[in-house]
Amino acid sequence: xxxxxxxxxxxxxxxxxxxxxxxxxxxxxxxxxxxxxxxxxxxxxxxxxxxxxxxxxxxxxxxxxxxxxxxxxxxxxxxxxxxxxxxxxxxxxxxxxxxxxxxxxxxxxxxxxxxxxxxxxxxxxxxxxxxxxxxxxxx
Length: 139
What we know:
Layout (H helix, E strand, L loop, with lengths): L2 E6 L13 H20 L3 H6 L3 E2 L2 E8 L8 E11 L3 E9 L5 E10 L1 E2 L10 H9 L6
Antiparallel strand pairs: 1-4, 2-7, 3-6, 4-5, 5-6
């Protein structure tokens, strides 16, 4: 089951062509990524980083830019887990504008790391439970 979140496209994200500058779209995706943890696992990403000392950096990313994101658009993001490995996670992102047009898709792989050593580690069981409930195909 996908997590669904919304944010507006802000003026600071625009480029000279009056569309969202592509690095801003990746920044927006990361904001959705951080917010998704509370819905998926009942833990904030801030708590994971600062208290649990766990991180999930991206190690692989592919994206398609399908339509422009414009100032004032409301973006609905659908995030789901496509792969739940021992230490890695596959993420599927789909952004739609307020008209329901798919504007951006991305597939990303993150790896669970110890923030002190930056070495990969197994995804803890409490997180694994929430993540598995948001895997594609789960109801």
